[in-house]
Structures are given as C-alpha cells and as structure tokens.
Amino acid sequence: RQAVGMEDEEEARQGLAAAEREAAWARVAERVGWQAQELCEQLRLVLEPTLATKLRGDYGSGKRINLRRIIPFIASGFKRDKIWMRRTCPVRRTYQILLAVDDSESMAHMGAADPAREALVMLWKALAQLEVGQVGVLRFGHSGAASLVHPLDSPLSDALGAQVLSSFSFTGRPDVAAAKPAA
Description:
The chain is of the alpha+beta class. Helix content is 48%, strand content 22%. The chain is elongated, with a radius of gyration of 25 Å.
C-alpha cells in the first residue's frame, strides 16, 4: 500500500511540475507574442519555400490530370496531349535549424538568463508558426558538455516548449579541464 501511495504522490508531483512549466511558458509567450509574430513575418521573407507541393503546368506526363485540358484534348483528336500537372511551385519550407543556448552560470550573473528564455520562446513560436521544417535546441556551457534538449525530429508544440524552457537553469559551471587547451 505504501508503494501505491508513493507512486500517486510522485505522479501528483510530476503533474504539478508540468503545470508550473506550462504556466512559466505561458507567461513568457504572452510577453513576446507580438515580437514572435513580427519575427515570423520577417523570416517569411528571408526563408524561401523549398518544397514543391502545388500542382501546376501543362506537361505530357505528370502526377494528376488537368481537367480543363481534357475537352480540348479530345476535340483535337488526341493531339494536344499536354494534360498533366506536376509539382513545380515551391510553397513549403524544409529547413533544419538548431538553436544553441548557453546554460552557464555566467548568463545569470550578466543578467542574460531572462532575455535568453524570451528569445528562445520567441524563436520557438515564430518558427512553429512559419512551419520551417525541423528545429532542435542544444544546451551548452553546463558541465562542459553540450546536450541536445529538443531533437530535430520532434514537433514544435507549446507543451514541448515548456519542457525545453524548464531544462535551462543557468546555474551550470563550465568544466575547467575541458576549457583548458591540451599542453
């Protein structure tokens, strides 16, 4: 019975921690919401679409038949055979973006921890809205080793964003042995 009680207690603690993470994410997202929208519009101009998804054109072979060309095709005695459409116009973005954030104690000492959190949330929201492709988050400066906090193949959602944001404590001390060059 004690094991069941401890499991329930642990689940309640995790639920509370998740609620706190999501509340912190919501506070920061509310502060930077309009900035994320403006950044998204600026990135829309810079990051050109790379993946063709719209069907266009009149080709001899292709993916789908252009129904507007069927009547002239039949009327011409099957000579005007350019009735097919292909995917030619790029409209979606397929980029791989990796955001690297310094999680060392010096960020907190310099007063850059909160602006770093805000920048992370702003970029997260803007890139999610723009649907740029794959986005990952890397944490460095914490115990001398870089670690991947959000892999490239994971989606961008607010719940995952809250989890990523909570992984930054800005209390890490860089490993002195790793920072020194080998002599």
